[in-house]
Amino acid sequence: MFKDAGALWLDIVEDVRWYPSPHNSQPIKLRAISETAARVYYDLDLGLPAESFGIPFAHVCAGVFLESLSVVAAARGYRTIEALDHSEMDFDAVDRLHLIGTVRLEPTDADAEARSAAQRRLAAFRSRQTSRRPYDSRIVGDEILSAASSIATEQGFDFRSTVDARMVSSLVRINQKTLFSDLRNDAVYAEIMQWLRFSKDEAAAKADGLSAETMIMPGRVLRFAMRNRSLWSFPVIGGLIRTMYLRTMRGVRQLGWLEGPFAEPSHFLEAGRTFMRVWLFFSERGVYLHPFGTVITNPASHAEFVLEAGIHESANRMAWMLFRFGYSSSPPTAHRRPATSMLLGFLPEGHVPTGATP
Ligand SMILES: Cc1cc2nc3c(=O)[nH]c(=O)nc-3n(C[C@H](O)[C@H](O)[C@H](O)COP(=O)(O)O)c2cc1C
C-alpha cells in the first residue's frame, strides 16, 4: 500500500522515527492522506499520564517531532507547511489518537548553500543522542552558548545556563532526589516500570523504552533496585544507589534551561520545537545533552530548581526544561520501533472511515 501512495512518507519516517521522546515511548503516529500530506497524531496509549506535567510534555514531544520532521523533509528538498490543531489533550479520551495537525510537504527551490545547510542539519539529527555518560569537564564555550540563546530568542524563549559549581552540584542533587521521590509515587513508579528495559535483548526486542544500557547502569542492579524500591529508604542501600547514579554525573560542569510561555497547548508545542532546535544545534557542534525533564514534572523538584536558580516565574511563563550538557564519548543507542509501526496507513484526503477520526 505504502509503495504506491506513501513511498515518500515511508522514506521520511525511516529517518524521523529517531526523534527523541520522554521514556522513549515514541508516541507520534502519521497517517498519509496524500503523497505529500499527512495527519500527525499523538497516540494516547503511549503517553505518560502519571506525571503532573504529562499533558504539557506530550505537546512538547509533538513540537520536538515537528521540528525533527522539518529537518528530515528539508534534506529531501521539502519545507513543511503545518496546520495545527492545538486542542487540549485528554489521556482518558475514547479516541486514542489525539490529532496534532496536518503537515504538507512543499518542494523548495533551495540553492546549493541551503541544500548543504539542510544536509548538515540532517547529519546533526542523525547523530543526536541523549548522553547519560559522565562528561569530560570541558566547558562549552560562549560562542556556542550565545548562538543557542539566539535560537531560543527567535522562538520567544530564553536559554540560560550556569557554570557555577555550587549551583550545578545542587541542581544535579535535586535531579537525583527526584528519582527517589518519583519512585515513592505509586502511579509514577508503575509507569516507569512499564518503560524500563533491563536487558539488552529486551531493549532490542521491544525497540522502545529506557534501557539500563542507555542509563549507564548494569541491568541486573537496576532490576533489583527497581523491584525493591522500599530498600531505597535504607541508608546503606539508598546510599549505594545514590552514589552509583551520581557517578554517571561525573564531569558535569554546566547546566542549561529554557524559560518562556508555558500555559497552553500552542506554548507547549513551540517549547518542544525550540528545545529540539537547541538540541540539534548542540549536536551539530559535538555537544551532548541529557534532559532533566523529571525535575520539571515533579512539582517539589521544580520548586527547588526555580529557587536555587533564582528564576522568576509568572502565570504564563515557566522554566520548563532543565538539562546537563557537555562533551562525552558516544552513548549507547536507544532503539526505535520500525518505520511501519509509526505509519497508520494511507487514507485519501477527505475520506472519513466510519467510527474513526481521519
Ligand atoms: C521532552 C523530553 C523530556 C525528557 N526527559 C528526560 C528525563 O527527565 N530524564 C532522562 O534521562 N531523559 C529524558 N529525556 C530523554 C529521552 O529519554 C530520550 O530522548 C529517549 O530515551 C531516546 O533516546 P535518545 O535521545 O538517545 O535518542 C527526555 C526527552 C524529551 C524529548
In words, what does this structure look like?
The protein has 358 residues and is an alpha+beta fold. The protein folds into two domains: 2-127 and 338-346, NADH Oxidase; 142-326, NADH Oxidase. 44% of the residues lie in helices and 18% in strands. The strands form three sheets. The protein has a five-stranded mixed beta sheet with strand order 3-4-2-1-11, covered by helices on one side. A four-stranded antiparallel beta sheet has the order 5-8-10-9, with helices on both faces. Strands 6-7 form a two-stranded parallel ribbon. A hairpin with a 2-residue loop joins strand 1 (28-34) and strand 2. Helix 4 packs across helix 11 (265-284). Residues 353-358 have low confidence and may be disordered.
Count of all domains: 2
Q: Order of strands across the biggest sheet?
A: 3-4-2-1-11
Fraction of residues in helix: 40-55%
Q: How far is the first residue's CA from the last residue's CA?
A: 17 Å
* CATH hierarchy, class of the largest domain: Alpha Beta
Kindly state the mean pLDDT as a whole number? Answer: 93
Quaternary structure classification? single chain
Total strands: 11
- With helices defined by DSSP (H or I, 4 residues minimum), what is the helix count? 13
Quote the beta fraction: 15-25%
Largest sheet: 5 strands, mixed
- Shape descriptor reads globular
The CATH architecture designation of the largest domain is: 3-Layer(aba) Sandwich
CATH topology name of the largest domain, in short, is NADH Oxidase
H and E order: HHEEHEEHHEHHEHEHHEHEHHEE
Indicate the structural class: alpha+beta
What low-confidence regions span 5 or more consecutive residues with pLDDT below 50? 353-358
Bound molecules: flavin mononucleotide
